[in-house]
Amino acid sequence: MIGQAIGGGRQRTYTLFESGLCVRRAKTFNYQFVPRTQLQSVDLTDGRLEIRRGLPWPLPIRCATKPMTQPRRVADAIERVLESE
Residues 10, 4, 84, 66: what is their CA dihedral angle, to the nearest 10 degrees? Predict the structure, then answer.
């Protein structure tokens, strides 16, 4: 968690797979893979996309929707993966 706080201001790239979500920080070799079994739900608001996850890291994954061209489409793709199990 401390490592995530240090790199908190860096841009992240999210790659969605059927098996989970890969989060990669810009300008680092650091990445985090969150298995599909930990992803629970997705919430889209005007300025934020939030992916809730379960234990052992119950903190949600959040990102701004401003740089996204089609945030609704992204949220729908995540929901389809969550429903596929």
Answer: -30
Condensed to tens digits (0 to 9), the pLDDT of residues 7-25 reads: 455 678 888 888 988 988 7
Burial 20-31 (b: 16+ CB within 10 A, else e): bbebbbeeeeee
Reported pTM: 0.75
User: Which of 78, 64, 70, 66 minimizes the C-alpha distance to 21?
Assistant: 78
CA 66 to chain centre: 15
14 is written with which tokens? 């999210």
